[in-house]
Amino acid sequence: MTMHAGSRAALALVLLGCAAAAARAQTAPRYQAPVVKDTARLAGPRQPIFFRHDIHAGQDQIPCMYCHYTATVSTEPGVPSLQTCMGCHLLVGGSTPSHQAEIAKVRKAWSDRQPPQWIRVHALPGFVHFPHMRHIKALGDNGCVLCHGDIAKTPQVAQVSTLRMGWCIRCHVERKITRDCTVCHY
Amino acid sequence: MVDGMNRRRFLKVLGVTGGGAAVVAGCGIGPEPTEKLIPYLVQSEDEVPGVPTWYASTCRECPAGCGILVKTREGRAIKIEGNPASPINAGRLCARGQASLQGLYHPDRITDPMARDAQGHLVKITWDDALGRLSAKVKDARGKGIVFLTGLEASSFGDLVDEWMKQVGGRHVTYEAFAFEALREGNRLAFGSAAVPSYDFAAARYILSFGADFMETWLSPVGFQGGFSKAHGFQAGRDAAMAKFVAVSPRMSLEGMNADEWIAAIPGTEGLLALAMAQVILSGHLGAAPGDAGRLTELLSRHTPAAVADATGVDAKTIERLAKEFAASKGGLAVAGGMAAQYPNGAEIVAAVNILNYVAGSVGKTVKFGGDLAAGGAGSFRDLTALLADLAGGKVALLVTHGANPGYSVAGFAAAAAKAYRVAFATVLDETAGAADLVLPDLHPLEQWGDSRPRAGVVALQQPAMQPVQSNARGAGDVIAVLAGKPGTFKDYVQGKWKAPKGQTWADAVQHGGAFGDAPVTTAHLGPDAAKIFPGKPAAPALAGDKGDVSLIVFPHYALYDGRGADKPWLQELPHPVSKIMWQSWVEVHPDTAKTWNVDNGDFLLLTTSFGSARVAAWVTPSVRPGVLAMPTGQGHVAGGRYAKDRDVNAFDLLPGAANGYGGRTFTVRASVDTTRDHRYLATLEGDPREGGESIVELLTLARATGLHAGEHAFAEEPLPEYADSAAAGWAAAQHDKASLGNYATQPTRWAMAIDLSKCTGCSACVTACYAENNIATVGEELVQRRRFLPWMRIERYFNQEEGRPVRAVTTPMLCQQCGNAPCEPVCPVFAAYHTPDGLNGQVYNRCVGTRYCANNCPYKVRFFNWFNYAERGGEHEAWPTPLDWQLNPDVTVREKGVMEKCTFCVQRIRSAEHQARIEDRSLKDGDIVPACAQGCPSEAIVFGDLNDPHSRVHALSEDPRGYHVLAGLNTKPGITYLARVVAGAEV
Prior knowledge:
The complex is a heterodimer. In chain A, about 40% of the residues lie in helices and about 0% in strands. Chain A has helices at about 15-25, 55-60, 65, 80-90, 95-110, 130-140, 145-150, 165-175, and one strand at about 120. The longest helix of chain A has 16 residues, at about 95-110. In chain B, strand 29 (about 795-800) and strand 30 form a beta hairpin. The longest helix of chain B is centred in the first third of the chain and has 19 residues, at about 5-25. Classes of the chains: A mainly alpha, B alpha/beta.
């Protein structure tokens, strides 16, 4: 009933996605996420649920765009809804007790209708406008690592780039991209 | 200064040295400490964060029923634009419609149901309690009088109220402060039918307005204005032409400002003027008068131009000339309304103007019965005075109000209503709701279902664009549906009433905003009473009241209307199109009159009528007839939200409380005037009412404009001296080299704009669109008086007054000219104002240190400084107290204290269109980018595009023979080309 009709990944696609990831895993040498014994040593803020990008994106090879699907079409990458998590975790319960404990938190959040309150890691000031889709378009689907680091091998997300203007500009200069102020500042 | 220290370098060094310590300490730039990211549980399919979702709905700010598209981001409505599919407004929207967002997010909205406690204070109660009380009262009041008072409701909501009232034995009264009694009665007199026809301005070739403010508040202003500018705007080409527009009214309204000729007839004599014109046409057989027009011969013979000249104050020659022009156009349209329909003889005036249309053969051509407007269904003032009498006589036990505020506009209402149990559905505690015994928080129209039938053949649907802002509010329709025992919700009721036209489903209709059809045009013939009007000798009517000898006209404020707009800061801070005054009320006084009283701008006058008195500041202006005073409604609320309450005086207090002969209210009264010794600064945009020798607004006569050929230029710009040219070129080239990198290196774009002043009416819809789009702070009355406002876009209005020539008002939108050789840029010590490679004058907020050199150096005065932090929570000058800040556009930075800001050509829309084009692997197309002002303009006067694209519309317009640049002699090379206004007449 809206003027904008977007097509979204539906629940039915979830299993397909997992199957595709499994198929790819057979050909490439499989990355094995380490067992994290001491979470205090990990960089970055402690999140309400110990969500492991290294297991999801690294070991299971789920593409970034599976969860952060709006990054290709919008300025905002979006935080996956809890429904996206439950698409898999309705069935996937975890292999070790520690994993099971974290997944139980996700299921509880779902049954309580209380989404987790993630601590924001990457933030830009209000006067900077960063269009994700333009950067994904230019750098490809795996361009994420350029700014966010090798997320697929990071158990806990931390800020690896300064996100300061000089850091932005360096890349724009290298790639001969505009350095006009009003491209980002307005 | 070749190699040494120049001023800019000096300041740079100074800045770095002084700022050293601050850098170490950190200047607040960087990640926010512990911001939370809270995901959705289930994300809506329609929603992509960062990408707006649009909902089609219907504007409910006035009964015109314009179609709207509500832009939502992350579930919040942030902007309203017109729905292009709607035949009522064709994609455009006025300032009031756009400002409905501030009603939605008003910080003083009622949160919970409330009832009176033992001390008489309103205290919060639960919905169960509230509904229990209401049902008990309804049961109790059966047979003792139940009245439901609403605004004009040509809608399912109105039907539901009717049904419920029938069930409980009550009656449904509708009340609009500015209703159309005279129009209906005038149509009945002339044609025997009280319907309100639709007026086809676009098809008119000569437009005569007798007081009708059809671009401001009258019937359907957005649609009328669109049609008007299609007809009145200059069309170049082989059959170059425009419709001439003549406005007759004692006060120059927006229509008078746009008129090719403004005729300031004596108040109340507009009808005589129309009859005299009809006489000229009929006796000279100038028009295609229908056969039965002969019945009018006797009436018209008593009203020859010579016979009415004295009474109207317009000489016979002028009347004859206008009549001949009107008839010769063979497509004339005369409308009567507004001021002319609010005199004691308003109905006769409307009938007289109908007769003028009739004898000129316009009825059926430009005046179309059949496609009747909903205004015909409005209740009359007599209905309300009857209700008042019933209330005072104790014949009403229960009074329910919704969407009407008689407590504000009728002086005796509160006292009379006190005898009944008063229930109010309201969003804000205005005068009527604040005095109620039971207050039920209603949903805003943007939060609920509904519909509107503004014109025969058109059903406009209304759907919620977001979840309710006040979670404990309930839609009045839903509440009444329960009370009336309807199955389901109000949405089900609306859907049940919906009759699907062929091939359209309900979902389809909701998506597109409704079903838009045309009703067949019916014929109209003279009614039995047509020749019975104006029986006596031609004379001005006696005005209401018997105090004093000055005529006082009370007129609806363009933005605040009958007071309902007063609670929205955008509308309060919108300079009135004529007076340019914000946040205040005023009384218009002619300079000659002011001289006799020794009164100047801002001096308070004490106006006394037989019905009340008001102390109001004078605005001395040539835009009103000598000896006549004019005062807008809208201010003077004693209750309501923070923006409306206790602000200035209420003009309704000066008006009679009794209905006149045709059941309407008389808005022109006799007043006595006393001067006082008090004075205040007018909170006005105006610097000077004259252009001061500069041709800011250029005019051309129709003859001159028609004679211009392509390639010619009516306004030749003086060639520059060589030194100026080379200096400018060198500076521009250096700027461009610095910024031309990457994708811009091969893309020499220059964003530019063309504004056609023959279409622009000065209505100011663009101003509010700009405020909404660009997060512009409203600063309040006091800061406006100190000229610290921030209107990126303003409408400048000048009076051209020369001895012995008629007064002419000219208007022009003034915004950043995005100069090619901008005076603001070289004076900025920190490069915050700089030239972008795509031809904009960039303003980088995070670089700006607030020297204000740029504003000093800007010849157009379009740069504005943030003297305070308007976004500060709880700050003294807070512009967006929560939840008003929910409206802020996330794509635009909210500026801090100490930075400059100005029009960016909606750079966020440019960037967004560029992103979209890149994602779709294509180039930008002409028309991809529409700035907010151009989008909202009801006249389509503004065109935006790439000047360097030879196929763009803006490129073509920039070479128009009427084109000119403001202050071109300064060598600023503006990016905005104005197209001179064309005046149909002998002189400009």
